[in-house]
Design goal:
With 223 residues, the protein is α/β, with parallel strands linked by helices. It has 2 domains: 141 residues, Queuine tRNA-ribosyltransferase-like (TIM Barrel, Alpha-Beta Barrel), CATH 3.20.20; 72 residues, no CATH class. Helices cover 44% and strands 9% of the residues. The strands form 2 sheets. The protein has a 5-stranded parallel β-sheet with strand order 1-2-3-4-5. α5 links the parallel β4 and β5. α1 packs across α2, α2 packs parallel to α3 and α6 packs antiparallel against α8. The longest helix has 23 residues. Pfam families: TGT (PF01702). One of its GO terms (molecular function) is metal ion binding.
Length: 223
Amino acid sequence: APRSEMTPESSVAAQKALGADIIIPLDELPPYHITRERLHASVRLSHRWMARSLRAHLDDPRQQAMYAVVHGGVDREFRAESAEYLASLPFDGFAIGGSLGKDRAEMLELLGYLMPRLPTSKPNHLLGIADPESAEAVVPFGIDTMDSCNPTRIARHGVLLTSKGPLKIKNTRYATDYGPIDGEVHTISHSRSYLHHLFKQHEPLFMTLASQHNLTFMNQLMA
């Protein structure tokens, strides 16, 4: 099979061609279970790539922003090292990436340590975390923005977000439930019964409406 080569510079060029408002540099994402020596090597590799990406970006800014990606896994020493090094460079903001722990508690503990080490004068973004519970939990730590495929991914599997928790629309009891998806948060003007029917019939429209509902719910949650 043909192979393609990607470099920090080509990654930046591709994102500039797309007109990205915020460019995320090429980095390495090591697994959670990794030796400390290998993790440190990965952090340093990502730092080199980000420095190259920043140089390419500053040569042709185009009114676009570039965020550095803070790495180090759950190792506090490496996270502090990454934050200190990247804060010394003229990035427009910071994205928190890499492994954030095996559960939400470990992630929050990590953020409690890391966030005070990032400049408060620049925005920060949490990569890959945006379920309702986590979103509400990380905001007090100073997280400005976040992203995740979670709302659309669970929508494809028939899970709708509501103010009372996740709703599994495939359950038989929703076949004759003509009420709104969420009685407290208005998202789409379709009943639970209709969404249940679409899901059971494998109608492509279901994924569109369910995704629209979940994204609107998250948008209102964070407003």
